Amino acid sequence: MRSDRVAAATLAALTLSGCQQMRIEDFADRKPPLDLFAYFDGRSRAWGIFEDRFGNLRREFTVDIVGRREGETGFVMEEDFVYSDGETEKRIWRLERKSTGVYEGHADGVIGVAQGRSAGNAFQFRYAFALKVGESRWAVDFDDWMFLQSDGVLLNRARVSKWGFSIGEATITFRREDTRRADLDALHVAAQ
To answer: Taking CA 48 as the corner, what is the angle to CA 30 and CA 74, rounded to the nearest 5 degrees?
Structure first.
């Protein structure tokens, strides 16, 4: 009987510890620091994939992005998606820095207000979204995490869920145009 209770307690502890989520505060000391508006100011490009909850690759895409500051606390980010099946999509984000490390965002398809927080090299963005699935739209939740790397690459993992159940995950890599150009110039010089 005692071994049953120990096994049950161990299982409960393992289950609860598996539910622990990342916290933005955990990244406060990570470098390089991510300034979201500075990173996306100008032109950048992204490459991404979407995997369903079983790990099956469902879609591949590229995104051309143009960002610009709007006043002291505002930012506009225009995203042009091209999917591997030829479908295209445009999304325009309007972001506002509410205070240090706290953001709000709006875009077509976003249900309500997107809530963002940043610390160190990380940015977390949570929002509900009307996702196009076939000919209909599903209200889903996005939990986006971005991490700036030392070489200027920004990694993004977005978990997508509905009613708390995983639908899938997007993995996206961002690169600023000026960073790409500098890398190409360095390759060209090295090749000579």
So the answer is: 60
For residue range 25-82, what is the model confidence (pLDDT) as tens digits? 999 999 999 999 999 999 999 999 999 999 999 999 999 999 999 999 999 999 999 9
Domains in the chain with CATH codes: 27-191 (2.40.128.20)
pLDDT at 109: 94
Contact 192, 171 (CB under 8 A): no
CA quadruple 90, 60, 157, 150: dihedral sign: negative
Report whether 167 contacts 52 (CB < 8 A): yes
SS3 sequence of the chain: CHHHHHHHHHHHHHHHHHCCCCCHHHHCCCCCCCCHHHHHCEEEEEEEEEEECCCCEEEEEEEEEEEEEECCCEEEEEEEEEECCCCEEEEEEEEEEEECCEEEEECCCEEEEEEEEEECCEEEEEEEEEEEECCEEEEEEEEEEEEECCCCCEEEEEEEEECCEEEEEEEEEEEEHHHHHHHHHHHHHHHC
Which residues sit opposite 52 in a β-bridge?
168
Instruction: Supply angle C-alpha 108, 124, 179, rounded to 5.
Output: 85
Q: What is the pLDDT of residue 132?
A: 84
